[in-house]
Structures are given as C-alpha cells and as structure tokens.
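Now for one record:
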Amino acid sequence: MMDSAAITPVTAEDEQQILDAIDKFLDRDVRPYVMDIEHADEYPTDMVEGMKALGLFGAIIPQEYGGLGLPTTTYARIVERVSEVWMSLSGIFNSHLIMCSAVIRHGTEDQKREWLPKLATGEIRGGLALTEPNCGTDLQAIRMTAKRDGDDYVVNGTKTWISNGIHGTLFALLVKTDPNASPRHAGTSLFLAEKGPGFTVSRKLEKLGYKGIDSAELLFEDFRIPADRLIGLEEGRGLRHALGGLELGRINVAARGVGVASAAMKEAVKYSQQRETFGKPICEHQSIQIKLADMATQVEAARHLTMAAAKAFDSGERCDMEAGMAKLFATEAAVHNSMEAMRVHGGYGYSKEFPVERFYRDAPLLVIGEGTNELQKILIARQLVERNPA
C-alpha cells in the first residue's frame, strides 16, 4: 500500500481549485472536440499535452519526486469529472499511474529517483503490461519469460490489450523468471520495460468503444532488460506487486463508472425536459420519472462506495473488498444508466449525433477491465468471510 506519508494533505479549498482547473480544461479543450475525435478513433495528442500541463501524469506521485502527491479521494474525483466528458482520457493517465504506483510502493530508492520525476511530468508515459492472449484474470498463467543473462534479462512473449501500448514508452511488465516455481506466483517478476530493440508493437486492437486511447498487442523477441529494472530488485514478487496496483486501478474504474453513469443521467434529464409527447415534456410522465429516479440513486450510491474505497486506500488499509464493491456497483451503474438514457432518448439515443450511444459503447468495458465483475463478487465474498470469522 502507498505510504500515507507520501500523500500531501489537500484542503477542501485546494481540492476545489484543482477540480475547477480540470473543469475549465474539459470545457475548453475536450468537450467541443470529443465527438469528432472519438468517432474517428484518433489519439487525442493535444488533450494529452493539456493533461501534462495540469500535472495529471503525476497526480499521485509524491511531491519529493516531482508529482502532485494527491490523495486517492481527490484523484477519484478528477477521474469522475474527466470520465463524465470522455472516459478514454482517464484511461491514458490511469494506466500510467498504476505503473507509477508499483514503483512508488515497491521500487528501490534509486528506481524512484531515476524514473518518477520523468513520469510525473509526462516526459515518459506508459502503462501496465499484464494480459496475454491466453491469460487475462488468471495472471499466474502468464507465459512470457525473462531469463537472466549476465547483467540483463532476455524477454520473450506477447502481451495484449495494453493501454498506451502505441504512444507509451515505459511499461510495468509481468514475466515468469521461474516458469517451474511452485506455487506459480513465486515465479513471477515485474520489470520496467522501456521500448527498444526486440520490443515491437505488433498491432493496434480495434474496439467497440473506449476509442482514442491506443490498445495494442506487444511482441517481445529476445528483448533485453537491464537487471536494475527489476522492480524492488527481487525476483518472485511480481504478481504481488501487480495485484497491489490493481486496487488503485479498481478505484479508478469505479470513478470512471460514476462519471459515465452521471453523464448518462444528466443527458437523460436534459432530453426529457426538451422532448414533448402528448402535450407535455416527457419528464412529467411517470414512467420516465421512475427511470430518472433510479439513475440518480445509482450515481449517488456508486459515488459513495468509490469515495469509501479511496479513503481506505489512502489510510493504508487493505481495501480489496472496498475497491471490489465500488468497482462492481459503479460499473454496473454505468451500464444500467447508459441503457436507460438510450431508452429515454428513444430513436435519437441510437444516433451518433447524441453522446448516449458513446456511453452505451464505453460502459461494458468497465465491467470487464481491472478484473471482471464476476471476479469482484468472489473477492468480496472471500474478504467478507475472512473479516468475520465464525
């Protein structure tokens, strides 16, 4: 867990100033252009530069290493705001920050001082490279190997569905340093892998939604990584290091869910006030009112669960149950509200002229990413039993 001493206390006034700056950026540089860029599936280069200027790539990196050192609660509120305008943008800096989180919590002091300042400014951007073509949720089943050869490790294998895979340059790479280890997780290690000879982006992966951000397949053929890039300089702890970062990732995905659910609700409310049937706005019809009430309740409940998980993370407590609950509920709220917003809009909800069709395409990713919602239920139940012994 992240050292709470590395988190800079933020007053309510300071936090509001940060959120106001985010809102101005979104209104000026994102909202007017998102429809065209998203439909074209173009990488939002100018928006990324704007996020660099705001310091978002260093949001949770401690100030001593050049970051903002924000608490996770503030970070979650930022993610919610960004996702309400365009969810893909939050993925660009979230994947980057999960990688940073692994360095912050498990890296050596030399690794922190070498990499975190450049990561905080966005000079170097990257992500998390865990998933493989035959391995998603079961990360112990990865096949990518890293064999020691003098002062280097030689890596071979493939990673897929890697966010920032094309435009990023540095990745937290999960590998097998001992394929025969028992238990299996004892043979995994996590490296900082910088693009170079033997590291190839084999293809961009096309997606239903989550456009703009690059999702790629990465091929490693006799790729050499210096031994000092092994996070923590200790083999066999890679899975533990990676899964620890997923707590933060699940809080982020939960915050994205809140943002998408909120955006869908607001579009539904606005449209229901403008659209008239049988001589009155449809918001005055009881069937529509019931939908709006359910949508609003989903948003508020999801927001509270997300904030509770963020507070637990900041306190240094184990919070896989809280993060799992927030991720489960908030992402299902996003799916629910996106469908309900489409129904409120009727035929226009199916049109690319309105943003609700984008919410409907983006939301399903959230129930899959950072561990499926089925997995979250298992983790929640296990923690519930563990915390309440008979």
Summary: The CA atoms of residues 125 and 168 lie 5 Å apart. The domain at 240-387 is CATH 1.20.140.10 (Butyryl-CoA Dehydrogenase, subunit A; domain 3). The longest strand covers residues 152-163.
